[in-house]
Amino acid sequence: MESLDDLTLDQLTDAHNGWLAELDPLVGAVGYPSVDAERLVRLPGGLAGFWRTDHTDPEQPYSLWSPDAVESLAFRSASPPTATSFNRLLGAWLAARDATPTTLCVSIPALATEVIPALVSHGFAPVRATAIRLVPEDPDPTFTGIDVRAPQPSDREPLLDLLHEMHRHELVYGSSYDRPRAREHLGNYLDEAMSRPDWTWVAWRDGRAIGLLTLNPQEASDWVGPLVSLERVVYLGFAAVTSSTRHKGVGSALVRHAIRRARRANVQAVVLDHAALSPLSSTFWHRQGFRPLWHHWARAAATSSAISPSAFLGVQA
Q: Across the chain, what does the average pLDDT equal?
């Protein structure tokens, strides 16, 4: 019988996907890795980790949610890792990596709770959750107490103010970054959303915009596909409500419109990312039927224990 220590990375990946599917059937299978030998550690018992470094161009809109440089660890395990085995893996990675100041990130399935003590002991903190909601056969009726419509050109500046407010609010949770051109970057995303009025909703009250929700159609959501086991998913890009109208049903009304649109498009699920440490985001999305699929943990590499939340928009290799 072949020893677990003799498994190739491809064989280890097959075994990894086996227990992953049992743990959470909605989590997507990980792919066969192409690994630099200098960025690979293997431990006894069929456990391996490998890492890559990505650099962010601050002139690009995605830089709002990504640090200047991020080093992300992916792992393969023949069986569900324990806190002890994952602790050894993190230690081996931190000992083997170059001592380059950067943000370190590890993405784990949300239900792989056994490894949480190891992440905490090495100074990692959860910064972002990727959450999913299955699209029901018969979505809830839209809430009639809120006026919701497609965006109009005159909405652009009020909606941009709303997105900028949301972005500044989430800086404290480490899920976004204060870039000099933040408003311009948000405007790029908003213009794209407004060009798809059938996938974008504006909540309206007393002659002003008080909320926004955007879905990316399936062809614009392909990048999230590897995270999910389902074939037909759409990504929820923005959901924001003015601070003065929170807890009044505006966000829920927008979500209901979006779920009904996803149903008409024959979509199986809606996926989104939210700040893991935000008490507003976490509770709101839970009430809307979303549950965590992946948790993304991060820390600064400058010290061995200081927790420094940072977001990372990436896909587990």
A: 91
What is the pLDDT at residue 244? Answer: 80
d(CA 154, CA 204): 12
pLDDT (average), residues 92-111 = 95
User: Residue 197: which residues within 8 A CB-CB, separation 6 or more?
Assistant: 150, 151
pLDDT band at 107 (very low <50, low <70, confident <90, very high): very high
Structure token digits, residue 20: 């992953």
DSSP 31-45: PPP---GGGEEEETT
Find the length of the chain: 317
Which pLDDT score is estimated for 308?
37
φ, ψ for residue 291, nearest 5 deg:
-135, 150
CA distance linking residue 176 with residue 180, whole number of Å: 13
Q: Strand 69-77 to strand 103-109: parallel, antiparallel, or no bridges (unpaired)?
A: parallel
CA-wise closest residue to 106 among 118, 98, 96: 118
Which pLDDT tens digit goes with each residue over 51-97?
A: 999 999 999 999 999 999 999 999 999 999 999 999 999 999 999 99
- Look at residue 302 and give its three-state secondary structure: coil
Q: Which residues fall within 8 angstroms of residue 179, CB to CB, at 6 or more apart?
A: 58, 63, 64, 185
211 neighbors 203 (Cβ within 8 angstroms):
yes
Answer yes or no: are the C-beta atoms of 271 and 132 closer than 8 Å.
yes
For residue 132, which of 258, 298, 7, 288 has the smallest C-alpha distance? 288
Model-level pTM greater than 0.85? yes
* Residue 67 DSSP class: -
Site of tokens 């159609």: 217
- Residue 147 near residue 204 (C-beta atoms within 8 A): yes
Q: What is the pLDDT of residue 302?
A: 53
